[in-house]
Inverse folding.
């Protein structure tokens, strides 16, 4: 089920909130409701895959209790290994099996070993929505209990609600059990007007990010990238500047909606974005982008590898391994691996540069950071290396350089603007592409010059309420054909 759909906005959400607050005197019943409602939310895509989530939940719930109860370190470690292996097996079978078999068969063909050495794909499974998110979240519970950072869930319902919680189930933010357990134990019995307004503000602004910014840019960016190689220099840069905005507003919009839904249910969901395109270094970018994943990779992978202990080269190695696996987490494709390795290399360069104590001017540092991020997005967006190569070639001027097309674009933009306000007729044969430039200008203004949703004034006033209501109506009018969020594929 999509947040940006009529069935969610006008049926599922109102009904769930009504039942949730009707059960204010029965905390266990509320958690059971949250778990079951989340299963309905997830099952709207595929009911069989609900069973997969339940399996992961059951395994980690019992593993956590066994880890906590075990007296010997060996027994505790055995149950931890069971939890990690079970989750990684589920993730590997459904997300990486086809990738591994495909690469094995490609290697067999390259080496000329013959058809007898090939392995047939024994599974052809659709990727369960959000599997990377809920397996990481569920697995972190067992690790935290093993480390002594969390107590086991008091009952299955509270843990089941934690794993399946629909506001952040399919695309994060990734939540630690220790951060939500106390909130589950002290659920509010009433929704105060100030918290309700805060929840509505986050949700509506997130919905607007998705529908009015991300989807508006995507309508022009996707055709440009689909024709990569035929695009000239200017169009390739416009496309990637557009995709850079699209993925930010799409993903941060979802995160804002998740936070807003959390407030409407009476609990806090952590921040996931902090104006990442204002960053002046790649390390700052990763402190601001997909923050809960960055913290997860830092706490459960980078530090486990040794972190920055053991000298400079071990630190740099750990950075590369962490970002390699972070790239692979995003998708079973070599383009994601290259994206992860590229960011790992950038973090290594950033670490080494800091040791020189040479500070770049703020503008130069910002421009270099954005350039690096945009080049990385080429691999993230590309369907394969061939497409990535075509886009990069066009961006450096090795594709077509259509000066006539650029001149036509320069003439069409003001003509289209005059047509939109009724001062002129639309130029005959003019493309809708000129609409991309105002969308890009608005998007970059919002990303760079405006406060993010966590920095906005949260005081409820009649004018703010009226503005949010008007914005919500505009968003609903855009719900002609809801589009999925980009991070659902991960």
């Amino acid at each position: 089920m999509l947040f940006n759909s009529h069935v969610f906005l006008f049926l599922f959400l109102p009904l769930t909130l009504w039942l949730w607050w009707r059960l204010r005197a029965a905390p266990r019943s509320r958690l059971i409701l949250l778990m079951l409602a989340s299963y309905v939310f997830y099952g709207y895509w595929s009911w069989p895959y609900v069973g997969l989530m339940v399996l992961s939940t059951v395994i980690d719930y019992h593993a956590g209790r066994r880890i906590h109860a075990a007296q010997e370190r060996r027994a505790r470690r055995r149950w931890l290994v069971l939890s990690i292996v079970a989750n990684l097996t589920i993730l590997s079978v459904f997300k990486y099996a086809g990738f591994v078999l495909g690469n094995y068969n490609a290697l067999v063909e390259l080496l000329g070993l013959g058809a007898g050495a090939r392995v047939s794909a024994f599974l052809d499974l659709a990727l369960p929505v959000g599997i990377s998110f809920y397996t990481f979240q569920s697995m972190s519970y067992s690790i935290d209990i093993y480390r002594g950072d969390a107590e086991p869930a008091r009952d299955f319902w509270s843990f089941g609600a934690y794993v399946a919680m629909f506001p952040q189930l399919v695309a994060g933010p990734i939540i630690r059990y220790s951060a939500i357990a106390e909130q589950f134990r002290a659920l509010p019995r009433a929704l105060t007007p100030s918290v309700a307004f805060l929840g509505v503000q986050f949700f509506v602004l997130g919905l607007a990010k998705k529908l009015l910014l991300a989807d508006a840019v995507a309508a022009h960016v996707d055709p440009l990238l689909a024709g990569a190689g035929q695009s000239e220099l200017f169009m390739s840069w416009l496309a990637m500047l557009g995709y850079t905005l699209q993925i930010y507003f799409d993903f941060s919009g979802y995160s804002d909606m998740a936070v807003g839904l959390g407030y409407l249910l009476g609990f806090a969901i952590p921040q996931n974005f902090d104006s990442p395109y204002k960053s002046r270094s790649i390390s700052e970018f990763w402190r601001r982008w997909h923050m809960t994943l960055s913290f997860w990779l830092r706490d459960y992978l980078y530090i486990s590898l040794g972190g920055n202990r053991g000298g400079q080269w071990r630190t740099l190695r750990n950075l590369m391994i962490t970002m390699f696996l972070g790239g692979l987490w995003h998708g079973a494709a070599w383009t994601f691996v290259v994206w992860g390795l590229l960011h790992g290399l950038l973090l290594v360069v950033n670490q080494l540069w800091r040791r020189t104590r040479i500070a770049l001017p703020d503008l130069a540092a910002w421009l270099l950071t954005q350039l690096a991020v945009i080049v990385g997005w080429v691999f993230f967006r590309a369907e394969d290396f061939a497409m990535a190569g075509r886009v990069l070639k066009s961006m450096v001027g090795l594709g077509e350089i259509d000066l006539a097309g650029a001149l036509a674009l320069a003439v069409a933009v003001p003509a289209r603007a005059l047509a939109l306000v009724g001062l002129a007729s639309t130029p005959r044969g003019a493309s809708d592409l000129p609409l991309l430039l105002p969308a890009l200008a608005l998007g970059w203004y919002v990303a760079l010059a405006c406060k993010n949703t966590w920095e906005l004034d949260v005081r409820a006033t009649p004018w703010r309420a009226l503005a949010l209501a008007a914005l919500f109506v505009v968003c609903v009018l855009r719900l002609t054909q809801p589009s999925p969020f980009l991070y659902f594929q991960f």
The two ends are 16 Å apart (CA to CA). The CA atoms of residues 413 and 438 lie 9 Å apart.
